[in-house]
Amino acid sequence: MKLRSKDLISAADLEKREVKAILEEAEHMLGTVRKGRQLKMLKGKILATLFFEPSTRTRLSFESAMTRLGGSVIGFSGTEGTSVRKGETLQDTVRNVENYADGIAMRHPLEGSARLAAQSVKIPVINGGDGANQHPTQALLDLFTIKQEKDLRNTRVALCGDLKYGRTVHSLMYLLPMFGTEISIVSPEVLGMPEHIMDEVEGRYGTRPEKQASLKEAVKWADVLYVTRIQRERFPDPNEYERVAGSYVVDSRLLSGAKKDMVILHPLPRVDEIKPEVDSTPYAKYFDQTFYGVVVRMALLNMLMGGGRHG
Ligand code: NCD
Q: Does a structural domain hold residue 91?
């Protein structure tokens, strides 16, 4: 199935049937990757990864996904060595890249940058994070991971940490309620979920995510604890960051109040919000997420860059 748009810019642009199709395609991809099969759907196609901001997982998993589909990759990571340093605009950069590649996966510090890029070129643009706004492919792989562990319907997901600047949780807010997944939120007062997202989600789905009083309460309530890093780089005032740094930490003591089959997800990188002692517990699923990121991105690349049917 093709998506309605040539691009993936925001989770808010996706319809439920599209999300379902992406998840199904990712399941197929998972099967082939587990069998160690090399696919050829995107043979001869080139993906440009334009990363104006730091990234490890998102860029490398896009590159891995493209390579596993038989395609190839060009791109940059950081603007040093590019004409961006000479003052080239984003629009000019992508218009030129369009001559070298069949699709773009990009990350940029400015909100709205991916949308602008998508409007400037005819090839598909996939948003790998635009400032504090959206990170739809991460949210899709989060959803895929939850689906591997739980029935999406009626599962309770607690989003915690930096809900103000965290773009992955902004994207998740649109995807989870599509499947009847319950959301509640917990964060330091100054890092709450933006009201416009709360309002939009309520308008669309008729339910407003509940606020938990504390991380401890959230842990008791949750089937899935989705932990985020406090996004230091987005704080206009470093003192403000210092005031909240280290305020949300998941450790073994906290987890003594959790359901036995609760799972912990994190988009990574983590700083200190999940103690390493948690890694060896059955709750920890954040490294599985990294693996699923490849198959979800394979699905998306195939759907957007015109690969043939699976198999
Ligand atoms: C996230 C991001 O870049 O928004 N990382 C990722 O893509 N896996 C989360 C973060 O940086 O905290």
A: yes
